[in-house]
Design goal:
This protein has 174 residues and is mainly beta. It is 0% helix and 41% strand. It contains no helices and 13 strands. The chain is globular.
C-alpha cells in the first residue's frame, strides 16, 4: 500500500499497489481515512518500525494542527489512534524507534514546527504523547524540515525563511 495526503481534501488516501508489476501495472485507490472529519494534511511520515503514519498540519483541530498518529496495523483500513496535546503546528516530522541506548523501546518524533522551532516528542504511547524538548536555534524563522544523521547523534535542520528575512547571509544548515 501507499498513502497520500494533500491540502485540497479527501483525507489520507489508501492506494493498493499489489498489481503494480507487469503485466498489469495497475494501482488502485481503495479508500480514504476520513475519521474525525480528516480532510487535509500538509505532510506525513511513516515509521515502518512501529507501523504508524504521522500526519502533520492536518485540518483536525484548526489553528493547532498537531501531530496525529495513524495505525497501519490493517494497511487497507488505517485508524487514527492519537495526537499530540501541545497546540503547536507541526509542518513536517521524522519519527524513529530506538532499540538501544537511553531511549531503547521508545518512539521519538522530531517535529519541525515553524517559528516554534524543533519539538521533540515521545510518541510511544499514542494516547499520551508528550514534549521532551523544544529547541529554538539562533536565527529561527521557520523550522521547515530536518533529518537525523545515520547514527542519530544529530538532527540537521533547514529553516525556510532565514535567508529571505535577512537573518543569515547564505544557505545555512543547523
Amino acid at each position: 500500500y501507499a498513502y497520500n495526503v494533500n491540502e485540497s481534501g479527501g483525507g489520507m488516501q489508501i492506494i493498493d499497489l499489489s498489481e503494480i508489476d507487469p503485466p498489469t501495472r495497475t494501482v488502485t485507490l481503495v479508500g480514504a481515512l476520513t475519521q474525525s472529519d480528516l480532510k487535509t494534511a500538509h505532510t506525513m511520515y511513516i515509521n515502518t518500525d512501529s507501523g504508524h503514519a504521522y500526519l502533520c498540519g492536518s485540518n483536525l483541530h484548526p489553528g493547532k494542527l498537531r501531530l496525529v498518529a495513524v495505525s497501519l496495523a490493517n494497511p487497507a483500513a488505517p485508524v487514527i489512534v492519537g495526537q499530540s496535546l501541545e497546540p503547536v503546528y507541526v509542518h513536517a516530522a521524522q519519527v524513529v524507534s530506538y532499540t538501544s541506548g537511553p531511549y531503547a523501546g521508545r518512539e521519538i518524533a522530531f517535529c519541525y514546527s515553524g517559528s516554534a522551532g524543533l519539538k521533540i516528542l515521545d510518541v510511544t504511547n499514542k494516547a499520551n504523547m508528550f514534549t521532551m524538548s523544544t529547541i529554538v536555534y539562533p536565527n529561527t524563522s521557520y523550522c521547515h524540515q530536518g533529518e537525523l544523521t545515520e547514527d542519530r547523534r544529530y538532527v540537521l535542520i533547514d529553516d525556510e525563511l532565514d535567508e529571505s528575512q535577512g537573518l543569515v547571509a547564505t544557505t545555512t544548515t543547523y
